[in-house]
């Protein structure tokens, strides 16, 4: 049985206080973690927890409630076909939580092979319909793993073809398709699309306001570094931002990335959407949430 919101908030540590901007204890919790003491600054960057990676010991719908109890207003997830959509909608209504994005097309079979394009279009249309049903503004699509006998240039060309076919579907439903480049050094060996230059070029060639990038800063750090510089060069193609620290793919504050500086850059560039937290918590979720907030404020 899930805890009631009142009892759960009493049971949490400083993370619950961090989420309460009017509480003096929020200042104390942030100060202990080395963050600026003005909690209003936190509101500049809204966070969307990836609920495939957070609260994994609990049923998915309960995770929505637990994220809300920690003060979050947004979440994201991966596949939609294995979800109880009526229950998900009910949890969103009950908590006021909003989903930012979910996965419409994954790694296999790849959209980087034209033989798969008919299936890609059918699934993207079904995903856009689901996004409309849930009030979700974006869906992630993945380029695909390496195809035997194809060069990177050929595979990227097939991704462009697929996205050009899919763009009218996205426009019809007013759901943005966000293409996610990966990293091949740590997590996705054998994937055909990584780093920003090829990814930005693909979206520019598709040339649609409904096809942009899911710019995951964790993958970009591993693939190329220079996070702020690369964002400046490709910001016109950013549809959504995700993050995790490196090494470890845990929340900011556990690794090498100066996320306060990167979030400042994004704000200065004009990014105002929520930021997806596609990381694993390094410890109990309320403690990781406090560290997360402390290390992205600016």
Strand order of the largest sheet: 3-2-1-9-8-7-6-5-4
**Which sheet architecture does the biggest sheet show?**
9 strands, parallel
Q: Mind telling me which CATH architecture this is?
A: Alpha-Beta Barrel
Envelope shape? globular
Helix content: 40-55%
Beta percentage is 5-15%
- Report the average pLDDT across residues: 89
How many domain units?
1
Spans of at least 5 consecutive residues whose pLDDT stays below 50 are 1-42
Number of strands: 9
CATH topology call? TIM Barrel
In N-to-C order, the SSE pattern is HHHEHEHEEHEHEHEHHEHEH
Radius of gyration: 19 Å
Regarding CATH, which class? Alpha Beta
Q: What would you give as the CATH superfamily?
A: Divalent-metal-dependent TIM barrel enzymes
Coarse structural class = alpha/beta
Total helical segments: 12
- The N- and C-terminal alpha carbons lie at a distance of 38 Å
Q: What this model shows, in words?
A:
- This protein is an alpha/beta fold and 298 residues long.
- The chain has one domain (5-296): Alpha-Beta Barrel (TIM Barrel).
- The chain has helices at 5-11, 14-18, 24-32, 60-69, 85-95, 117-134, 152-173, 196-206, 217-223, 227-234, 259-269, 285-296, and strands spanning 47-50, 74-76, 98-99, 101-105, 138-142, 176-180, 211-216, 238-243, 275-277.
- Strand 5 (138-142), helix 7 and strand 6 (176-180) form a beta-alpha-beta unit.
- The two termini are 38 Å apart.
- The model is unreliable at 1-42 (pLDDT under 50).
């Amino acid at each position: 049985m899930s805890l009631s919101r009142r009892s759960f908030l009493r049971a949490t540590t400083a993370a619950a206080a961090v989420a309460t901007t009017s509480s003096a204890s929020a200042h104390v919790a942030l100060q202990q973690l080395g963050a600026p003491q003005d909690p209003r600054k936190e509101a500049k960057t809204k966070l969307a927890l990836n609920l495939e990676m957070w609260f994994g010991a609990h049923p998915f719908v309960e995770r929505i409630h637990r994220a809300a109890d920690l003060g979050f207003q947004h979440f994201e997830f991966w596949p939609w076909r294995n979800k109880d959509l009526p229950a998900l909608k009910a949890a969103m209504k009950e908590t006021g939580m909003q989903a930012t994005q979910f996965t419409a097309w994954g790694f296999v079979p790849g959209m980087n092979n034209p033989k798969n394009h008919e299936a890609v279009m059918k699934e993207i249309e079904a995903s856009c319909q689901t996004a409309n049903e849930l009030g979700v503004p974006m869906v992630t699509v993945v380029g695909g793993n390496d195809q035997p006998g194809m060069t990177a240039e050929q595979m990227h060309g097939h991704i462009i073809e697929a996205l050009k076919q899919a763009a009218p579907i996205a426009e019809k439903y007013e759901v943005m398709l966000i293409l996610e480049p990966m990293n091949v050094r740590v997590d996705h060996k054998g994937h055909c699309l990584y780093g920003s230059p090829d990814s930005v070029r693909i979206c520019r060639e598709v040339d649609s306001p409904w096809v942009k990038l899911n710019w995951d800063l964790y993958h970009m750090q591993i693939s190329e570094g220079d996070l702020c510089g690369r964002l400046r060069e490709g910001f016109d193609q950013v549809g959504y931002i995700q993050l995790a620290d490196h090494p470890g793919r845990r929340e900011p504050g556990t690794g090498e990335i100066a996320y306060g500086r990167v979030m400042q850059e994004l704000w200065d560039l004009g990014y105002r959407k929520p930021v997806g937290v596609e990381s694993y918590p390094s410890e109990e979720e309320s403690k990781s949430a406090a560290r997360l907030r402390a290390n992205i404020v600016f």
